[in-house]
Amino acid sequence: MAFEFTDSQMDGGSVMRAVMALSGGMDSTGLLMRLLADGYTVSCLSYNYGQKHSIELERAKANIAYLASNGIEVKHMIADLSSAMGIFHSALTTDGYDVPEGHYEEQQMKQTVVPNRNAIFASILYGYALSVALCEETDVVIALGVHSGDHAIYPDCRPEFYEAIAHAFAVGNWDSEKVSFHLPYIDGDKEVILRDAENALSTLNLDFDTVFANTNTSYNPDLQGRASGRSGADVERILAFHAIGRKDPVTYVDSWESVLANALQVEQEMRK
Fold this sequence. Notes:
CATH topology: Rossmann fold
Radius of gyration: 18 Å
Low-confidence stretches: 1-13
CATH class: Alpha Beta
Shape: globular
Strand content: 5-15%
Order of helices and strands: HEHEHEHHEHEHHHH
Strand order of the largest sheet: 3-2-1-4-5
CATH superfamily: HUPs
Largest sheet: 5 strands, parallel
Mean pLDDT: 91
Oligomer: single chain
């Protein structure tokens, strides 16, 4: 299965329709900006699954408000899955377990896997997308910001996972031809996402720093919501901003110079 828009979705309908998962992180936020720049009417679902870094939900709401203040209306809902997914074990959700620090591809980062998380998220999104398709009599794309940087540790971010789950959903539903997955960054990384976001935000005439200040990538922010700069997700984000020649606008516990130096050192050690 190819994760592309069909010709009819791009050219045939008066309204291009998308639903997406908006975590409040930089990947899904960048994707939202791309969809809006391309002219899509977008509805976003965020998930409260008991994550320790729930500040990301507040950041998602902040960006939705920023868009509204600039005349761009995006429907945003938060699904509370905390009671159901609270029975799953992960360093991201289970009390008494610290989030590991280091490079994203280190084996210890497997502690941050939440069992079956993306299957659950995708299932809910699919049901919602199909409901929108039927109610609005239009084709709908399910857009997700998964990327190649996630592949090493998170099996449910890999292309073969989405090929399999898309097939299962199509087999298990009527009218499934109205819904398709769109994974534009599946072969890219965080640097690709940021560069694409720069272009999308220029098209939308929105401020890059404001948008990305309203995101959280850190798995272990402090009580004030400041990013640690030390988790694998932090390191990957810091390196992406460095690669495009920008200072990350989010607030870190330490200075930008300090977290960048740490990220570069972690990257160097991984290459040995």
